[in-house]
Amino acid sequence: MMHHSTLLRSLFVAFAFLVLAPLAGAGGLVFGVEAAQAQTVSRISVEGNSLVDDATVVSYLTVRVGDRAPSSEINASTNSLLASGLFDTVNVRLSGGVLRVSVSENPVVASVLFEGNQRFSDKELLSMVDTASRGVFTREGLSTDEQSIRIAYDQAGYTNVTVAARTEVLANQRVRVVFVVNEGERAGITAINFTGNNTYDSNQLKTVISTKESHWLSWLLRDDTYEEDKLAYDSELIRRFYADRGYPDAQVLSAVADFDTSKNAYFVNFTVSEGEYYSFGNIAIETSISGLDTGPLQSVVRTREGSRYSASRLQQSANEMAIRATEQGYAFADVRPRVERDVASHTFNITYLVDEGARIYVERVNILGNEKTRDFVIRRELGFAEGDPFNRSIISRGKTAIEDLGFFSSVDVSTSPGSAADKIVIDIAVVEDSTGDYGATVGYATEGGVLGELSLTERNFLGRGQYVRAAIGASQSGRTFDFSFTEPRFMGLKISTGFDIYKRVNDETTASFYGSDVVGGKIRLGVPLTKEFSSTFFVGLENTQYTDKKAPASVIVTDGETRNKVFVGYSLNYNGVDSVKKPTEGLYASFSQQYVGWDNNYVKSELKARYFMPLMEDSGFIASVKGQVGVVNSVNGTGVNPTETFLLGPSLVRGFEGRGFGPRRASGEALGSTYYAGLSAEIEFPFPVLPESYGLTGAVWADVGYAGDESSAGPAAQTGIAQQVRSSIGASIIWDSPFGPLRGDFAHVLQKDSADKTQVFQLTLKSLL
Q1: Cα–Cα distance between 645 and 270 in angstroms, integer?
Q2: Residue 75's closest CA among 63, 67, 84?
Q3: Is residue 383 packed enough to be buried (19+ CB in 10 Å), middle (13-18) or exposed (0-12)?
Q4: Are 618 and 736 part of one and the same domain?
Q5: With bands split at pLDDT 50, 70 and 90, how would you rate the model's confidence at 196?
Q6: Which range, 91-100, 456-465, 725-734, has the best average confidence (pLDDT)?
Q7: Are 97 and 124 in a shared domain?
Q8: Is a pLDDT exceeding 70 seen at residue 692?
Q9: What's the confidence (pLDDT) of residue 444?
Q10: What percent of the chain has pLDDT over 90?
Q11: Are both 587 and 663 inside the same structural domain?
Q12: pLDDT tier at 4 (50, 70, 90 boundaries)?
């Protein structure tokens, strides 16, 4: 007797055979026989299209006339047509050998408009959306564009922005798309807090990071925008700050931002672990390169025994030493610092190992990302070319030189293996920044009163690295017209050339006694001498017409008088400061000399120098001493025309007006001095109660100056000569404004002549000299 389980199994198999056999036959038709039985396409028929021609529709199909069209190909053709974005609905079917394609087209976008946007211009928003570039309208694309705009606003600090697209149907299957933006209020950063920082206070650390607190100029600068990616970058900046100031083990344990919906603002918190303080111990140089003179290498070492540990100075020293070694002919020299930590004494003993590196050559240099800037502008800054020896220190110097051009927001240098083991490929990826500036500015100068300027500047003209500037200025006492052009690399050499054309119209005032109309121009040639020294040679012509129509009459010029001059000269500049924008230590000096002929015959010489030094390490207190001297000498002994002498004022001793002191006539007309000398001392400091983002610092200072005699070629002085030494003391407020560094000086004059003209307050642009 059959077992019950066997019987059931037999019945199940029989049932499965009866049910699945027909399906297997059908399946065989679909999977096995379909290709053989699929119809051949004899003709393609397109219908429903009016904007897109038949040929375009057919081009998206995956089958052609003469091909077999199984259902898989029909589905693929349907998907291809939908993916094109041209059609809203698609139906593809095969009937009697005819492939019938029925489509419903998407509307064409006639225009894209924006409403309610203030933070971003229409042009900026248009670049963020794809609707206009696609040319056809789709709901999916519209949603993507709305999200793109929201992301851009969110990154700019507008956390409550809403974006809604509106469509307006036009004739001929066209639509107008309008993005309605409700920006809301921009979220700022109310406070940035630090914990764990014992050595450096929060105000000092705030100056280090790129994230800034909201302040009274945030509406203009928009520098208080919170970006999550910035926190990691700021954490690294804090770590580097400590690592350069004796704390190599410093870490940022956490960096978080909390959003307060009631204040629509962020609170940013950094938790810092400073670690132990370390200084440099013994410093030594060891080399395996026979014949290498380590003397020049020793001169560029920035790590001194007893000074605080600094990771950047350690790397800078190694790079500079490698470059000095290559200058001696050792192209593959490699410098590696060997660092030995002494935990007991909290010091790092440094040994610079100078060895012959691997003999690798540069096979190719690829420049990427430069759409405007020509390749040669970037390549000429590298200091090496294809085929030259590969040296990481020289490449690092080249990267810095490219960054110093000011044409790029970022420069990234990477390497990859070349076609052989001894070859390497260098990729330089740049992100171009705006190099053109134009606009109108209005300001105030103590000497000229209210002034304004319209200017157009291009620092990378035609992508060739050339500098062009045109400007028109006006003040209460005159007008200026300027045009300048500079070629930074004449004939590919490290020599700059350029020219300046100018016109200066100075009105007749009670202070100047006469007016002038000056038209001139000069040609310049700049030659770098060393890393710190540079020189400029120049030659030019100038024509001046004087006016003297008002009383009291000038004793120096006559109305309608014309004077011409040709001048040739040079200047020597020394830049030894750590930063031109915000120097804290080092010397900056300039010496200029020129001969002036034609209607004149004299030599004018001036020397100016300023030395900076930090008073207390990392305190922000910077002391500086400035000295200046000038002299103008007649060549033939007949004297110098009084219009060419030094008219002394606040640039020598603050607290005096322009032309405020020196020899003058009883009428008050300044005659100028043929020589002068001055000395100034200043201490600049941060305001302890103000955030660094305000850009405000203070200063106290003292000036003393000596005014020499008037020229023998002019009338004799009647006043202003009893007291030749002038001095003053004062305090200043310095603002690193969006329009440039401004300083307001409040002065108290200590020594003066009875004929001098003084002033309590002066507003000027801050300068090194």
Answers
A1: 58
A2: 63
A3: middle
A4: yes
A5: very high
A6: 725-734
A7: no
A8: no
A9: 53
A10: 60
A11: yes
A12: very low
Q: What is the pLDDT of residues 503-562, one digit of tens each?
A: 999 999 877 899 999 999 999 999 999 889 999 999 999 999 999 998 889 999 999 999
Question: What is the SS3 string spanning 728-759?
Answer: EEEEEEEEEECCEEEEEEEEEEEECCCCCCEC
Instruction: HSE, CB side, 13 Å, CA atoms: give it for residue 222.
Output: 10
Quick check: 629 and 636 in contact, CB under 8 A?
no
Radius of gyration of the chain (CA): 38
Confidence of residue 621 (pLDDT cuts 50, 70, 90): very high
Q: Tokens standing for 500? A: 């300046």
Task: Tell me which residue of 571, 605, 601, 603 sits closest to 589, measured CA to CA.
Answer: 571
CATH number, domain containing residue 321: 3.10.20.310
Structural domain containing residue 256: 188-273
* 505 falls within a domain: no
Q: What is the signed CA dihedral for 115, 118, 123, 127, rounded to 10 degrees?
A: -90
Query: 223 and 213 in contact (C-beta within 8 Å)?
Result: no
Hey, which residues does 364 pair with through a beta bridge?
Answer: 425
Model confidence at 10: pLDDT above 60: no
Query: What is the average pLDDT value for the chain, to the nearest integer?
Result: 88
Q: Is the residue at 738 inside a domain? A: yes
pLDDT tens sequence across 701-745: 999 999 999 999 999 999 999 999 999 999 999 988 766 788 899
Q: Could you say which of 330, 356, 382 is where a domain stops?
A: 356
- What is the predicted pLDDT for the residue at 251? 96
Q: Which of 356, 382, 406 delimits the end of a domain?
A: 356
Same domain, 761 and 674: yes
Closest CA to 751 of 718, 708, 719, 706: 706
Residue type, 662: G
Residue 659 pLDDT greater than 80, yes or no: yes
255, 230 Cβ separation under 8 angstroms: no
Please check whether residues 585 and 728 belong to one and the same domain. Answer: yes
Beta-strand (E) ranges in 671-719? Answer: 675-686, 696-707
Which residue(s) pair with 255 in the sheet? 270
In angstroms, the CA 732 to CA 441 distance is: 23
pLDDT at 32 over 60: no
The answer on 692 and 599 residing in a single domain is yes
Q: Is residue 508 part of a domain?
A: no
Residue 312 scores a pLDDT above 50:
yes
Pairing of strands 725-737, 696-707: antiparallel
What is the number of other CB atoms lying within 10 angstroms of the CB of residue 727? 17
Q: Are residues 96 and 117 in the same domain?
A: no
Give me the amino acid identity at 564: N
Q: How far is CA 233 from CA 230, 251, 399, 723, in A?
A: 5, 13, 20, 58
- pLDDT at position 221 is 67
Q: Residue 396, Cα to own-chain centre: how many angstroms? A: 19
Q: Domain total for the chain?
A: 6
Q: In what order do the strands lie in the sheet with 423-432?
A: 361-368, 423-432, 408-417
Question: How does DSSP classify residue 577?
Answer: -
SS3 for 359? coil
538 closest CA partner among 506, 573, 502, 499: 499
The residue written with tokens 């229409």 in the block is 122
Which tokens is 256 given?
């978080």
Sort residue 398 into left (φ over 0), alpha (ψ -120 to 50) or beta.
alpha
Place of tokens 């979220």: 187
Compute the distance between CA of residue 577 and CA of residue 468 in angstroms, rounded to an integer. 27
pLDDT mean over 192-211: 90
Strand order in the sheet with 188-195: 188-195, 265-273, 251-260
**Do 731 and 616 sit in the same domain of this protein?**
yes
pLDDT over 70 at 134, yes or no = no
Domain assignment present for 5:
no
Mean pLDDT score, 574-600 = 93
Q: Are strands 174-182 and 108-115 parallel, antiparallel or unpaired?
A: parallel
